[in-house]
Amino acid sequence: MDMKLIIQGINYYARKEKMYGLDEREAALRQELRDNYINLIRLSFQDQIEHVKVVDEDGNDLTPAIMKAIQKEKQIHGRHLDAQEDLPTKMEHFLASLEDINPDIELDN
């Protein structure tokens, strides 16, 4: 649900409660809107925190390890690329796997 609509709904029920009071259904709807609002705030804050990258004045990455792990999992700041092998290493592993499949194959090195 859109944050603007949630706030409008919360404000509507706040005005109505002051003027006329709320029945059980309206009070439940107001509480549901409040819960949705809090949930959106939490998700937004979590997203902001997860995108933080701490760097010193020399450009060294000082981001805590737990944050790096979350960023790697969610592929933020290219963290998922940090563990990727370079092409020569990939080729070496690939050729080694071929030798495991058929040991009779001779590879020129």
From TrEMBL:
Transmembrane segments: none annotated. Keywords: Cytoplasm. SUPFAM superfamilies: YnzC-like. This is UPF0291 protein GIY11_08205. Its main location: cytoplasm. Belongs to the UPF0291 family. PANTHER family: UPF0291 PROTEIN CBO2609/CLC_2481, UPF0291 PROTEIN YNZC. InterPro entries: DUF896. The keyword Repressor does not apply. The keyword Cytoplasm applies. It comes from Fundicoccus ignavus. It is found in: Cytoplasm. One of its GO terms (cellular component) is cytoplasm.
